[in-house]
Design brief:
Length: 88
């Protein structure tokens, strides 16, 4: 098991940053869940790029499939409302 570096007090700014992020999501004119879905898809993609470029661990087939599924799901959630018919 890897020992976490630093003091547990470092969790306080991390928690505050996360709380600020969640609050900022509520200010977006779109539904916060859609914005968070977009963030999630990008986060997973960048995490695997980090793994590959910084940690020199190339992604395997399941990594690639997982990212494609995340990005596809993100696109369906974020772009879905654009294709709804507007009833007047």
């Amino acid at each position: 098991m890897v020992e976490p570096p630093g003091s547990p007090w470092l969790l306080l700014p991390a928690a505050a940053s996360l709380a600020l992020f969640v609050w900022l999501l509520t200010l977006h004119p779109q539904a916060a869940g859609r914005v968070y879905a977009a963030y999630g898809g990008i986060y997973v993609s960048v995490a695997l790029l980090w793994l590959w470029w910084i940690e020199s661990t190339p992604p395997n087939a399941s990594d690639i499939v997982g990212v494609l599924l995340c990005l596809t799901g993100m696109a369906i959630i974020v772009l879905g409302p654009l294709h709804r018919e507007v009833s007047t």
